[in-house]
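hey can u check if this looks right to u? its 197 residues, i copy pasted from the old doc so theres a chance i mangled smth
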Amino acid sequence: MSSKIGDPELAWLFENCYPNTLDTTIEFGTFEGKPDTAVITGDIPAMWLRDSSARCGPISHWLRKTSNSAGMLEGIIRRQARCILIDPYANAFMANLDAPPLEWSRTDATDMKAGCWRAKVGARLALLSDPSLLRVLARNGDSSPFDKTWHAAMKLVIETMLVQQRRQGPGPYHFQRISKIATETLPADGYGARCGP
């Protein structure tokens, strides 16, 4: 790809930054004998559901040509499913999903579960994740990550979406934080602005 970029400095920048995801943000592991891949943002040691797909989506078509990439992609999908099952409203998770909530988040008026980095300002559902990782595995005919855990996570996503339509009230999710910055908290006792169902 670098040879197709006309500006040598830009080509050099691309050549150094493109593989940076693999070099600095991916933590390989296993859980219950299966691949488990945490993808941290790079600036903080947290895995955001949306960002973990967005980081690996652009390199996934190259990765499928290597022998161990399927395990990495499978591990990301498995990790995302585990995160959703911990809390479908959380937007970021720690690499260690058994870790207690961070000290700075313990004063937030929301239910912070173990393994959650942040559950702030609105529901961040798994549907925000880029489906490109699913497409790569589907092209390879690999259905291994789509097991009972993944199905349970997707069922919870749908249930959460239905609850957040607010047909029977505001739903269980609420968030408040003591802050002078309006985007750091939610109005109406933490349930957010009023809206129609």
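The mean pLDDT is 80.
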